[in-house]
Amino acid sequence: MEKVLRKLQSGSDIRGIAIQHEDKQVTLNRETVAALAQGYVNYISKKLGKNPEEIAVSAGTDPRITGGKLQCAFIEELLDAGMTVYDFGLSTTPSMFMSTIFEKYNCDAAIMFTASHLPFYYNGIKFFTKEGGFEKEDIKQVIENSIDILKNSTVKQTKKGKIVKTTIIKDYSKFLVEKIRTEVNSKKNYEKPLEGLHIVVDAGNGAGGFFAEEVLEVLGAKTAGSAFLNPDGLFPNHVPNPEDETAMGFLKRAVLNSKADFGIIFDTDVDRASCVDKNGEEINRNRLIALSSAIVLEQNPGSTIVTDSITSDELNEFITKLGGKHFRYQRGYKNVINKAKELNEKGIECPLAIETSGHAAFKENNFLDDGAYLTAKILITLAKLHEENKNIEDLLEGYKEPLESKEIRLNVNTQSIKEYADKVISELEQFVKEEPEWSQVEENYEGIRVNCKGGEGSGWFLLRSSLHEPIICINMEADYAGGVEKTEKKLAEFLKKYSEIDTSAL
User: What is the mean pLDDT of the chain?
Assistant: First the structure.
């Protein structure tokens, strides 16, 4: 079990196979969850400086069919340790964190069972305190504590804890509703500032279906044409993932067929979101960052927007034209959020940390990556523009998309991906120096980013190792036809000497 437990760490989360599927064996079951819970009790008690019986913990799950039984196994261990547990049942990841903020609950910590957008046979666990989500080192220590307890049988039985079964979704919905009402502050219709707007939601049968009825309709919006609002842990219609082309296709069609003003799509646990405008155009990835930046820079002129490393040069130009500063950092939503926090601590105003995946965290909202809150911020702007007979697309005036873009993932046959990737990057740096049309971007915090300029136009690529898999990722963009192919051919020529890299995708 020791080896299995260590493999369950996925960055700052726990993720594993919860249902046997084809050749994938179960790694996250009642037994491993119980062991993790024991390690968690030990860790959270020390972290908070409290005895278990003094700690109140909330627990919730997305609709995955394994969520209930895994959550129960975890809760049993918490109760045996003497903790007070709020069992919220079906929940969203952001609402679980807010259980530590809302005075009604004032939980010391929160636990969410989810594997985000991964297929139904996966599950996982996210952990929070009032300070935010766990870091990688926190997860590592929980696992090591679990292993130590299994080896030494150090679990102490105490007075049985207390369980409170309730829901937090209605409280969280009210929080969002009041946020939108207050900030729109409509003189025409304060209670229903979204009246006259038609907005559709695609929840992908995840946990986000509440948003249509509990938020949009309460605020006066029409939601006809919304799809897959009912939770279904098998996700029978499409993967609940704003980055998935099929999922976005469903939302585009829903907006156009319903002649809606706006469309919203959430991932499974609602910590990510993306949108579609009335014309069926995606507001996703770089475009979503551009829209979010326009909103926060109007409220915080001259401030800094932190993004992940693969954002476009066009986005950088757009943020700069708005008077803001753009700080590209390492991929991974926790990396981006932590960098934003660090900048603020140094006195550099940074109101937003956002990844191209749709993870967006606002300073005003405890730097919580929250798809519903991101949507609320956009809807506030949408409502104000609607009163002025303007559209959300007006905020994106001057923003340009690259003509071509591509992401390539190359499998690497090695156990030490970071060391191997570092070698490749070091040798690529020399290769770049010898390419007259290429130049390395010096201010770069992940892998190697290279500008590619020639007579036809310009572009760039970023080569990096994956955060969790033995994969080298390459992102490329160009502002002219054939630019990506040209870059790809040169990279293929460079990479062909590395036998451990599968270059068949090039």
Answer: 96
Closest by CA to 309, choosing from 133, 441, 125, is 441
Q: pLDDT over 70 for what percent of the chain?
A: 99
Q: What is the pLDDT of residue 416?
A: 86
Structural domain total, the chain: 3
359 within some domain: yes
> At which of 342, 374, 396 does a domain end?
396
**Cα–Cα distance for residue pair 39/495, rounded to 1 Å:** 44
The C-alpha angle with vertex 492 and arms to 491 and 498, in degrees rounded to 5, equals 100
Asked whether residue 223 falls in the same domain as residue 352, the answer is yes
Is residue 263 within 8 A of residue 252, CB to CB? The reply is yes
Q: Locate all alpha helices (DSSP H) within 273-353, ordered by sequence.
A: 285-299, 313-321, 333-345
SS3 462: strand
The answer to whether 136 touches 12, Cβ cutoff 8 Å, is yes
Identify the bridge partners of residue 438 per DSSP, sorted by sequence position. Answer: 452
Report the residue count for the chain.
506
For position 34, which CATH number holds? 3.40.120.10
Supply the range of the domain harboring residue 418. Answer: 404-495
97 in Cβ contact with 109 (< 8 Å): no
CATH at residue 476: 3.30.310.50
Q: Are residues 215 and 263 in the same domain?
A: yes
**Are residue 177 and residue 146 in the same domain, yes or no?**
no
The amino acid that residue 246 corresponds to is T
Per-residue pLDDT at 209 = 98
**Confidence band of 467 (pLDDT split at 50, 70, 90):** confident
Same domain, 160 and 142: yes
Contact yes or no for 500/470 (Cβ under 8 A): no
CB 331 within 8 A of CB 467: yes
Please answer whether residues 405 and 477 qualify as being in contact, where contact means their C-beta atoms are separated by less than 8 angstroms. Answer: yes
Instruction: Give the C-alpha separation, 163 to 342, whole Å.
Output: 37
Tell me the mean pLDDT in the region 117-143: 97
Q: Are residues 128 and 273 in the same domain?
A: no
- Both 94 and 75 in one domain: the answer is yes
Mean pLDDT of the 393-414 span: 95
346, pLDDT greater than 70: yes
Contact in structure between 72 and 79 (CB atoms under 8 Å) = no
Closest CA to 146 of 54, 32, 57: 32
Paired strand residues for 112: 60, 126
Residue 96 and residue 328: Cα distance in Å, rounded?
29
Q: Cα 294 to chain center, whole Å? A: 20
Question: 416 to each of 410, 448, 464, 501, how far by Cα in Å?
Answer: 15, 18, 14, 13
The pLDDT, as a whole number, for residue 156 is 65
Q: How confident is the model at residue 154 (pLDDT cuts 50, 70, 90)?
A: low
